[in-house]
Specification:
With 481 residues, the protein is of the alpha/beta class. The protein folds into three domains: 2-147 and 287-358, FAD/NAD(P)-binding domain (3-Layer(bba) Sandwich), CATH 3.50.50; 150-284, FAD/NAD(P)-binding domain; 377-479, FAD/NAD-linked reductase, C-terminal dimerisation domain (Enolase-like, domain 1). Helices cover 31% and strands 26% of the residues. The chain has helices at 12-23, 38-43, 45-62, 77-102, 164-167, 173-177, 189-200, 220-232, 344-358, 386-392, 407-411, 440-453, 457-462, 472-479; strands spanning 2-8, 28-32, 105-108, 110-117, 120-126, 132-142, 146-148, 161-162, 181-185, 204-208, 236-238, 241-248, 257-263, 273-277, 279-282, 286-288, 310-311, 323-325, 330-331, 371-373, 379-383, 396-402, 418-424, 430-436. A hairpin with an 8-residue loop joins strand 12 (241-248) and strand 13 (257-263). The relative contact order is 0.11. It binds nicotinamide-adenine-dinucleotide. Nicotinamide-adenine-dinucleotide (NAD) binds at residues 151, 185-191, 193, 208-211, 216, 242-243, 283-286, 342-343, 372-374.
């Protein structure tokens, strides 16, 4: 049989593309070599957020006395992991049921593109028994995602140096080994979310970040405030510092692993500084997952970037006609994407637009992309920050709202947080928003829609916001300009 579309990888891109293509009437084969749901469901967004939820409950319960709630609080790592597994498994079961109900053919195995001519593509699928079967398809969508990248320093292979894949692994044993002290290399999104998890469970966390600030891709004030809040909770954040090597610490009362690093300001002749912990998490970025994806005959046919990502054009197609790529693995300005953005929701959005393109429909532009960090408080941004506006020469005015007088925030004892709305200086249309407070990751959907629709400060100010809600501070931010 020849399928209309063969999709490789069942993460947010592959899953969404398969369902949408099937609904559009195409015959679809979805190939997955590991667990259905990809990184997002099995080793990314969902398990991390499940752990973040348990951890924040622990901290809230431990800090509940001022709210009149008393009692000793403890946590059980095994039960935390059981809960994480239950969440992941229930969503996975749902997805598999939906894939099957939709009439998508789900093939278990490792797909390899053998050839890709104008008359169709040939893909072989190796099952667990090592046997290969051949499938033909009119088009192929590669949605194989990324995997954690290690850093090129000595000792990275030592036991106790982990990646997020290890800590989100199935039995949770490695997650537990990071207590009581964990060193995190990288103050990006993964680093900060894990810093939140371990510190909320009472762990002693050190973050080592190469750049001058954590969450360096986000608004400056976001970095400053999350640094301040985490430091107050006992997290040691060291910036402008590069890790030199890992060593097993000798007779160290605190833990088993030493992470040696050097601050930019350290004189070259001084020995590196060191932090001891039970384990280290390397959260210093991710790398493309293309292992075994191309047969020796086909290898080199698809254009890759220097770092091995698959180049795509504005419609998500590679240089080989009929072969597309979406999600983390794809690199290009498909549908207005910013190359290098690795988010589950952009993967889904890209993949769905590729199906529109295949079906000869005009895909909608992506618009403003929400970027969310699930720390406590949550951080969510969309559109331009003031720095980005300046870089692009967009004249802006900024309205800021703080939560000091917000009833809901006072009730919940919200830590220092803010809403920043960035408006075009002339039209007063919203072009960006940075929100830091409880529920920010939900509120940002509103901001992204306003940006896409060109809503102005006056229109926002004239909207009625429910009371008491965090969203009321949005009106305050619009009023401020
Ligand atoms: P990242 O690129 O966001 O952050 C990595 C950080 O590590 C950077 O700040 C970098 O300067 C630092 N770094 C690199 N090498 C270093 C070294 N040798 N020593 C010290 N610091 C070093 O990468 P990530 O946090 O691993 O996340 C990977 C991707 O996954 C990102 O694109 C992220 O957006 C995405 N992600 C998103 C979410 C979410 O949406 N909530 C959650 C997790 C991951």
């Amino acid at each position: 049989m020849k399928f209309d579309l063969l999709v490789i990888g069942s993460g947010p891109a592959g899953y969404a593309a398969s369902i949408k293509a099937r609904k559009a009437g195409l015959s679809v084969c979805l190939v997955e070599k590991a667990l259905a749901g990809g990184v997002c469901l099995n080793r990314g967004c969902i398990p991390t957020k499940a752990l973040l939820y348990s951890a924040s409950l622990h901290r809230k319960a431990a800090e509940a006395a001022p709210f009149g709630v008393h009692g000793a609080v403890s946590f059980d790592c095994t039960e935390v992991q059981r809960r994480r597994r239950e969440v992941v498994e229930s969503i996975r079961a749902n997805q598999i049921a939906f894939i099957e109900k939709s009439g998508v053919t789900l093939e278990r195995g490792s797909a390899r593109i053998e050839s890709a001519g104008d008359d169709g593509k040939t893909i072989s699928i190796a099952g667990d028994d090592g046997k290969r079967k051949t499938v033909r398809a009119e088009r192929v969508l590669i949605a194989t995602g990324t995997k954690p990248a290690l850093i090129p320093v000595a000792g990275c292979d030592l036991d106790g140096v982990f990646t997020s894949d290890d800590l989100l692994g199935d039995n949770g044993r490695l997650f537990e080994r990071c207590f009581p002290a964990l060193t995190i290399i990288g103050g990006g999104v993964i680093g900060m979310e894990f810093a939140s998890i371990y510190s909320d469970f009472g762990g002693k966390v050190t973050v080592i970040e190469a750049l001058p600030r954590v969450l360096a891709n986000m608004d400056r004030e976001v970095s400053q405030i999350i640094t301040m809040i985490l430091k107050k909770r006992g997290v040691n954040i060291i910036t402008n510092a590069l890790v030199e090597r890992f060593e097993k610490a000798e007779a160290n009362w605190e833990g088993e692993l030493s992470c040696l690093f050097r601050k930019n300001s350290d004189a070259p002749e001084t020995p590196p500084q060191s932090v001891a912990s039970n384990a280290a998490l390397v959260a210093a970025g991710r790398k493309p997952e293309t292992d075994g994806l191309f047969s020796p005959d086909f290898s080199g046919a698809i254009a890759l970037t220097e770092r091995g990502y698959i180049r795509v054009n504005e419609a998500g197609m590679t240089n080989v006609p009929g072969v597309y790529a979406a999600g983390d693995i794809a690199w290009g300005a498909a549908f207005g994407m910013i190359p290098g953005v690795q988010l589950a929701h952009t993967a889904t959005a890209q993949a769905e637009r590729i199906i529109d393109h295949i079906m000869d429909k005009t895909p909608a532009p992506l618009g403003a992309i929400p970027v969310c960090v699930y720390t406590t408080p949550e951080i969510a941004c969309a559109g331009l920050s003031t720095d980005e506006a300046k870089e692009r020469g967009v004249p802006v005015v900024v309205g800021k709202g703080v939560f000091g007088g917000n009833g809901r925030a006072v009730i919940e004892h919200q830590e220092r947080s803010f809403v920043k709305l960035v408006f075009h200086a002339e039209t007063k249309a919203l072009v960006g928003a940075q929100i830091m407070c409880n529920h920010a990751t939900d509120i940002i959907a509103w901001a992204a829609q306003c940006i896409n629709a060109g809503i102005t400060a006056e229109q926002i100010r004239n909207s009625v916001f429910a009371h008491p809600t965090y969203a009321e501070t949005i009106a305050q931010a619009a009023e401020a300009i």
